Amino acid sequence: MATITADAVKELRERTGAGMMDCKNALVEANGDVEAAVVLLRERGLAAAAKKAGRDAREGTVSSYIHTGGRVGVLIEVNCETDFVARTEEFQKLVRDLAIQVAGLAPLYVDIDRIPAEALEAKKAELAESDAAQGKSAEIRERIVEGQLRKWYQEVCLYEQPFRDEDRPVEDLVTEAISKIGENIRVRRFTRYALGEEL
Fold first, then answer.
1. How far apart are the first and last CA of the chain?
2. How many whole angstroms separate alpha carbon 121 and alpha carbon 115?
3. Of 108, 98, 97, nearest to 192 (Cα)?
4. N or C: which end of the chain has fewer CB within 10 A?
């Protein structure tokens, strides 16, 4: 059995934000392997976040972000379960990160479920008529449309977009925040303004 050092626990805690005892237990279970312990903690955090996802989130904050130069601005509402959490530095940082994401990548919807049915059907029809899908069998055309839809979701849905330069989507960022903070968190709505943009 590997010896679990205080430095290893500290490193794991800094990387994951998990509690001291959770980090120590994960290291014991992973036989001292920090990378394996990170995976264990992430899996546990995602499982805990899934349990919290059904809980009511009516508190939170409405925040704004104005990009340098004043050409782009965002208003965003992010909900959590208690006003106490809404005031924490960690929650406020998450809200700011989300607002910057909206300013930079201009999503239209929070997630796939909030895309209006007519807009989704129109996009599917457009993709089915594209040059890439023309002349293909129905089965292949369907796969092409599904693949292009996934790319489109990453453009228009905040939760599907990659967060900054990372591989993980924004939805994973929110899920990690849920597991660290211990409350359900959800983006309720946002509006992005760009100077001179058509109404």
1. 65
2. 10
3. 108
4. C
Asked if 190 and 77 count as a contact pair (C-beta separation under 8 A), the reply is: yes
Q: Which residues of 7-38 are buried (b: 16+ CB within 10 A; e: fewer)?
A: ebbebbbeebbbeeebbbbbbeebeeebeebb
Q: Which two tokens stand for residue 156?
A: 């228009």
Helix axes 170-181, 34-52, angle to 10 degrees: 90
Winning range, highest mean pLDDT, from 50-54, 59-63, 134-138, 174-178: 59-63
Distance CA 45, CA 22 (A): 11
Give residue for tokens 């895309």: 115
User: CB–CB of 185/55 below 8 Å?
Assistant: no
How remote is the C-alpha of 26 from its chain's centroid? 25
State the Cα–Cα distance between residues 65 and 71, nearest whole angstrom: 11
Q: What is the pLDDT of residue 16?
A: 66
- pLDDT value at 138 more than 60: yes
